[in-house]
Automatic annotation (TrEMBL):
Positions contributing to N(1)-(5-phospho-beta-D-ribosyl)glycinamide binding: 14-16
Binding site for (6R)-10-formyltetrahydrofolate: 67, 92-95, 109
Full protein name: Phosphoribosylglycinamide formyltransferase
Signal peptide: none
Gene3D superfamilies from the UniProt entry: Formyl transferase, N-terminal domain (3.40.50.170)
Lineage: Bacteria, Bacillati, Bacillota, Negativicutes, Selenomonadales
Catalytic activity reported: N(1)-(5-phospho-beta-D-ribosyl)glycinamide + (6R)-10-formyltetrahydrofolate = N(2)-formyl-N(1)-(5-phospho-beta-D-ribosyl)glycinamide + (6S)-5,6,7,8-tetrahydrofolate + H(+)
Keyword terms, alphabetized: Purine biosynthesis, Transferase
Pathway in which this enzyme or protein is active: Purine metabolism; IMP biosynthesis via de novo pathway; N(2)-formyl-N(1)-(5-phospho-D-ribosyl)glycinamide from N(1)-(5-phospho-D-ribosyl)glycinamide (10-formyl THF route): step 1/1
NCBIfam families: PurN
Keyword Transferase: yes
Organism whose genome encodes this protein: Centipeda periodontii DSM 2778
């Protein structure tokens, strides 16, 4: 089984990055993080990466005249580090076909809602405004749409009376830290088979390296 090289894209503090690093250190994911890239020069995720000796790079959106130029710069950095799987861990930019086509079937994202409900940047606000009793998080493959790719794993959490965006986000985040490393593990083990919109999880004995 080949060892996957992860390229992790972050925009903020990098708590999902930390959960992935910990899973790798525990030996649960047979992979290495080749590079961490942020679109914000002051993202704490970059500091987390530096503390672990992981290459960390800021590719700042405003430094490029067009989105396609920004994405080509991201792709160039990922290829320079031989990345085989792109992991969007709180990366707050929608990727265009320029990027998606470069890594078709090799981009995973975590979204803080039970897709297809509440896609986009304000999932917690939208869930609370709608009055749902259950929310959660979703790991999915990335396609050309917004949070529309095939679903790999989901986890549900209750919505409590008096919840705010912050309290709901904290409850959902604890589940993100659980299922995101698990989804990466399944990918690395070759246990994900996509059939149209459906992602089938193969038994461990049947998994093949992708």
């Amino acid at each position: 089984m080949r060892k996957e090289k992860l390229g992790i894209l972050c925009s903020g503090r990098g708590s999902n990055l930390a959960s992935i690093v910990e899973a790798i250190e525990r030996g649960e994911i047979r992979a290495e993080i080749a590079v961490v890239i942020s679109d914000k020069i002051d993202a704490y995720a970059l500091e987390r990466a530096r503390e672990k000796g992981i290459p960390s790079i800021a590719v700042v959106y405003r430094d490029y005249p067009e989105r396609a130029d920004f994405e080509r710069a991201l792709i160039a950095e990922l290829r320079a580090h031989d990345v085989t799987l792109v992991v969007l861990a709180g990366f707050m930019r929608i990727l265009s076909p320029v990027f998606v086509h470069a890594y078709t079937g090799r981009i995973l994202n975590i979204h803080p809602a039970l897709l297809p409900s509440f896609p986009g940047a304000h999932a917690h606000r939208d869930a609370l405004a709608y009055g749902v009793k259950v929310s959660g998080c979703t790991v999915h493959f990335v396609d050309e749409g917004m949070d529309s790719g095939p679903i790999i794993l989901q986890a549900a959490v209750p919505v409590m009376e008096g919840d705010t965006e912050e309290t709901l986000a904290e409850r959902v985040l604890s589940q993100e830290h659980r299922i995101f490393p698990e989804a990466i593990k399944l990918y690395v083990e070759g246990r994900l088979h996509t059939d149209g919109r459906k992602v089938h999880i193969l038994p461990a004995a049947e998994g093949e390296s992708l």
